[in-house]
Amino acid sequence: MRLLDLLLPVRCAVCAAPGGELCAPCLASLPPLRPPLCERCGAPSAWPVARCRECGGRRLAFATARAAVAYDARVRSLVAAWKERGLRGLARPAADVVAACVRARPGADALVAVPADRERALTRGHHPAHQLADELAARWDVPLLTLLERPVAAPRQRGLPSSERRRNVARAFRARDRSPARVVLVDDVYTTGATASAAASALRAAGARRVEVVTFARALRVG
Ligand SMILES: [Zn+2]
Ligand SMILES: [Zn+2]
User: Fold this and answer.
1) Ligand located closest to 16 CA
2) Residue 89 has what pLDDT?
3) Peptide bond preceding 115: is omega within 30 degrees of 0, i.e. cis?
4) pTM of the full predicted structure?
5) Nearest-angstrom CA–CA distance, 204 and 157
6) Of 70, 8, 31, nearest to 16 (Cα)?
7) What is the largest CA-CA distance in the chain?
8) Which of 13, 65, 158, 165 is most deeply buried (CB count within 10 A of its CB)?
């Protein structure tokens, strides 16, 4: 935490109202993702479907993905504050929202957080996915295991052809140990599903039979 943050009053990460890290009106206005959803990837759909346009035809290593809120502008500033400033106080309300929306209380053997890339973990020391997983582990009474690591600094993806990007993402994670059979993989934001799938694939290579992904927010495909 920067010295400045200690001197200034705590402000809401979304609207900057003084008081707490997330004020009650902003908490109440987070856009929930409600069914009907795609059974597999959790994208909102007009009616319940087993696969949708977003995930159909893709090889995804996880069985299902669910998120609590849509990744809109407010949620983006919330997640940015959580990441950049390490607002630990945001983990609890985020976990409350996740636990309320995602009625997972999954029949899982363990929770695993998607690890930050090494460079980020070193420079920031704040990791929303891990904080969220920690809060959820307590709520669901499921152990949190630090099973995954990122073996090398993630290569720059910009400008690479998509086949090469996919290959890089697939090699981004490694399991430190054998994985239990049923795992819930926790991350702060689900964007394309590529990261979640790569992490799930590392868990499955280590023995997981079923991986369910749970995130705080989910990017919505336009159109
Ligand atoms: Zn606010
Ligand atoms: Zn889908």
Assistant:
1) 1
2) 82
3) no
4) 0.88
5) 24
6) 8
7) 52
8) 65
Residue where the block lists tokens 């099973």? 147
- Name the nearest CA neighbour of 2 among 122, 84, 77, 75: 84
How many A from CA of 12 to the centre of ligand 1? 5
Answer positive or negative: Cα dihedral of 211, 213, 214, 215: positive
Ligand showing the shortest atom-to-Cα distance for residue 44: 2
Q: Distance (Å, rounded) from C-alpha 126 to C-alpha 214?
A: 19
How far is the centre of ligand 1, averaged over its atoms, from the C-alpha of 98 (Å)? Answer: 19
Helix (H, G, I), strand (E, B) or coil at 206: coil
Q: How many angstroms is it from 21 CA to the middle of ligand 2?
A: 33
Residue 76 Cα to ligand 1 middle (Å): 13
- Alpha-helical (H) ranges within 24-70 are 24-28
Sign (positive or negative) of CA dihedral 148, 95, 41, 54: negative
User: Topology of domain 3-218, per CATH?
Assistant: Rossmann fold (3.40.50)
Ligand 1 centre from 36 Cα, in Å? 29
Q: Phi, psi (5° rounding) for residue 182? A: -115, 120
Residues of the chain with pLDDT under 50: none
pLDDT digits (tens, 9 = 90+) for 70-80: 999 999 999 98
Can you give the C-alpha Rg of the chain in angstroms?
17
Q: Ligand 1 mean position to 18 CA, how many Å?
A: 8
pLDDT digits (tens, 9 = 90+) for 89-114: 889 999 999 998 776 566 899 999 99
Query: Where do runs of H (alpha helix) occur along 141-193?
Result: 162-170
